[in-house]
Amino acid sequence: MLRGKHILLGVTGSIAAYKAAVLIRLLVKEGAEVRVVMTPLAKEFITPLTLATLSRHPILVDFFDPEDGRWNSHISLGEWADAYLIAPATANTLAKMAGGVADNLLLTTYLSARCPVFVSPAMDLDMYAHVATQENLGKLRRRNVSIIEPEEGELASGLVGKGRMAEPEKIVEALQRWFSGQKKRGLSGKRLMVTAGPTREAIDPVRYISNHSSGKMGYALAEELAARGAEVFLVTGPTQLSVKDGIHRIDVVSAQEMYERACEIFPETDGAIMCAAVADYTPAEVSDRKIKKDDGSWALELRPTHDIAAELGKNKGSRLLVGFALETDHEHSHAHAKLERKRFDFIVLNSLRDAGAGFGVDTNKITILERNGSETAYPLKSKRETAVDIVDKIENYLLSPDSRPSE
Ligand code: PMT
Known about the structure:
Elements: E1 6-11, H1 19-29, E2 33-38, H2 48-55, H3 74-80, E3 83-89, H4 91-99, H5 105-112, E4 117-121, H6 125-129, H7 131-142, E5 146-147, E6 151-154, E7 160-164, H8 168-186, E8 191-196, E9 201-204, E10 207-209, H9 216-227, E11 231-236, E12 248-251, H10 255-265, E13 271-274, E14 281-283, E15 302-304, H11 308-314, E16 320-327, H12 331-341, E17 346-351, E18 363-364, E19 366-370, E20 375-377, E21 381-382, H13 383-399
Helix pairs in contact: 1-2, 1-8, 3-5, 4-7, 9-13
């Protein structure tokens, strides 16, 4: 949830500042990029060297570098951050934040930050309980600052009570919860279609041609899109899977049925993700009786099915169209050809040559190929996690249309 997120950590002068080191380590482990701004007093409690080493960035304390006069811009720090976390936050810093005081870099950054702000108070129990502190926290809460409640326990003073800074793990969880809530809202108002599973092409009343698709990848995508607030239309071939409430499930059997339903639904959506393993050929004729066995060989005549994705691509307009390529050889050139031919915005390549990828299994290993030539390879992950990676890309394309490479 925190992968790639920019977390600006503000550290103030409290004995709990030592926990900032653990906090940075956890955030970096979760994949976040962390930059640190400290109040001058915080340096007395933990050295900038420690925090710089852990965060892999120089620590910012002053408005400008005393050596060369370089300006430390609080505005660009605030713009860089996806979240500003002040931990530990002393009673003094909370009071200054509530009052709009701007006498250090940490505070000016707070005043100019446009990102969500979190504070993790740390102080003695009486300071925390004091009406002034509580009023300040109330003011900050009303301004949408998230307060990560301190814990009860032994305090630096030797007293026992509420005021201990929350443990770093709890703070990281609070950030994760917030970002997951954000993600959920990211696609609200968007309508997306997902095709999933195999199709079955009848030969006679008892036999059919199909493939090994279980539907797992497509259903994981549908669930991730729905979790982020999208209205999802899942056009699915026969599978053993069930879907969560809130996803519109449209069951189909054959490629022709999938084609008809997909063509009906697509114009009403903001885009489609074509994950189904659709039969490319279907029997030219379907016998209405069971075909009887005889001793000779038997040739079955097949005719091509509609290429659903290619058909949707013809009239996609500004809609997003995401394809899959399931390959066994010449993976990249085949995927590129499909990206072009079917007018996908991007294509997700999975190869049956990679162990743990493709049909049936709970994992997948994908590469996303985009129209601008960029290719991003992901390691083997669960299909649920793979869906998160794909939907991250979809969200980017839908929410920042400018980032979408033109055809
Ligand atoms: O269902 P699982 O067991 O979880 O397995 C997942 C998966 C392997 C099926 C999935 O990850 C995947 O790769 N799906 C696409 C399979 C496929 O048919 O790929 P393709 O390379 O043959 O087709 C290219 C694209 O065109 C696909 O987006 C496909 O949905 C679409 N297509 C293909 C043929 C057709 N007649 N109509 C289509 O729309």
